Amino acid sequence: MRGSRIVNCLCGAILALTALAVPSVLRAQDGYDLWLRYAPLDGEALERLRRLDLHPVASDSDASDPTVELALNELERGLAGLQNAPEEIPADGTPIVLQCDSDLPGPSGHYAVQPYARDSAQGIGIWASEPIGCLYGAFALLRALAQGEDPLTLNLASAPAMPLRMLNHWDNPDGHVERGYAGRSIFDWWRLPGHLDQRMIDYARANASIGINAVVVNNVNARAEMLEPRYIERLARLADAWRPYGIRVYLSARFSAPRDIGRLDTADPLEPAVRAWWQAKADEIYAAIPDFGGFLVKANSEGQPGPQDYGRSHADGANMLAEALGGRGTVIWRAFVYSAEDDTDRAAQAYAEFVPLDGQFADNVIVQVKNGPIDFQPREPFHPMFGAMPNTRLMLEAQITKEYLGFATHLAYLAPMWEEVLQSDTGRDGTVAQVIAPAGMAGVANTGSDRNWSGSHFDQANWYAFGRLAWDPTLSSADIAREWAAQTWSREPATLDTIESIMMDSRQAVVDYMTPLGLAHLMGTGHHYGPALWVCDLARPEWNPCYYHRADAEGIGFDRTATGSDQLAQYAGQVAARWQDPATISDDYLLWFHRVSWQHTTQSGRPLWDELVYRYDHGVSTVDSMAARWASLEGQIDARRYRDVSEYLAIQQAEARWWRDASIAYWQSINGLPLPEGSSAPAHSLEHYQSLTFPEAPGDT
Ligand code: GCW
Question: Given 260, 375, 610, 611, which residue is catalytic?
Fold first, then answer.
């Protein structure tokens, strides 16, 4: 031990010399390390840590547990990085004592991290009632240290607000990721189970660091073959690798699997042979993966099979699978449904289909509801199902990948959007965060084979923020931004101010240049890249942007009040009252709920047309300002990531203008109105924008 320590010290000296040459903040980074860089501290924070000479130890009873071992390793790795020192366990110094079988009360995963003094000795304690709490506590301690905090003043008691903190991967077994903008799938089914890529470990570690504890590995547009023995065997290898990180695996299940791969001629959920097939399938999976989490199901939605194919309800379908899993797992049944046959407002359909089923779902069924009633738009009001099904566990589905917010090349920090939804008062059962507390939150993952995981450095923040909010939905998006940036970019306060300000302005900028004032779903057909406001003739009405904006010479917007679709009536009275009147509704939701004239006076005091143009201009100028703020950081952060972000921001600047110009050109072709004074004309004709095609756009189905 002593000998190896000496060798390590020499390595440390070499490392330290290298560090002298390039300040740590400027050392080359490719983004692979995410927020777990543990970049060396400096100044007082470094001195303090070195003085304390922290070293992690586990109590005897915990020492052999693999999760506790991960916690110890992580602490060693983190402390070494933060101190720019070799990974070694000092013989003396201040202990970080892990006590992972304490009687600390709380839900699974909770922990407390605090300094303690015993006799004359002091130390830092990580207390939990199970190993995973210790791992979460270790990450929490390192997160605080990485932000330069003093370990002797910490008091980090925390418990997850909801049991399921889940990623949904829309990854297909062939490696294509639906709505993926970060390369190919990270799941290498071809080489599994024989070979487990290191990325699978790094991925689990990143998830554990933010409290994510459940992963659905395949697309909700599911292939039945994922339930075949060869995939179960591969999934078992992942489950084994992820178990110590507290992550349970789930599968998206294709409802017609008994027919597709089971040789039955029906998938009717009330048919005994079908029930027996699922029962046997569940038993087969549990034999290989004893802690298999369960099934996620997209049924009777966008062409996917489901119980309605046999005249049965969503509850019939979900309950059949729930029975097959029994007490071993959970069925997560998606509420993202809208039908070609149903000509009622698309925003009203999920509520209409699911709310009457309240109370009919088995105990181990969770209904998963998107944040808003349409589909992951830059801004939507919260989904009216939240609070409307008091006898059903509801889970929130958010989209981390940015299908409708400019893909990976636009910088859009999504936590302010999720915060907006989570804090929404349903008027029935508390806030959305309170409604989902017994169930959880799922995020459609933005990971891919790109070196930086998420397709852009800033999209890592969305993965991070999703996990942090699922753990604690009362955290503020600004605090999360700063905490992420300090671990990812730099601890320099001025740099952090700039990065935080860019992030906090970014989502509203996207709303402004794409879909201001409550507009929605104006993106290009299929791939959803760029503006296509003029598309009006697709087979299904609700696939057309025209369906959503309803613009003509007189006015614009979707009337969802009693004079229109009356979807507003699905909200609790007090909520509906806030949105009922076009004269008083927030401009953010104006055209979502109301159809108004181009001259309608908005909350800003400007007529609608002027306000619309103002918003487009504001979106564009905000992106310009984001790029300028970023440019001010040159030399403050490493050159490679600086350049990556600069180039993406330049793309975003150009595309924000494209959105603005194409939108204005189209609206003018409808309303014939001149531009408000001071606003510049679109760069090209409407025909130019209409002629653009993007066969190479990524992520399409
Ligand atoms: O957002 C839409 C996407 C589809 C997706 C669907 C869903 C997985 O455009 O690609 O399919 O929602 O959530 O099921």
Answer: 375
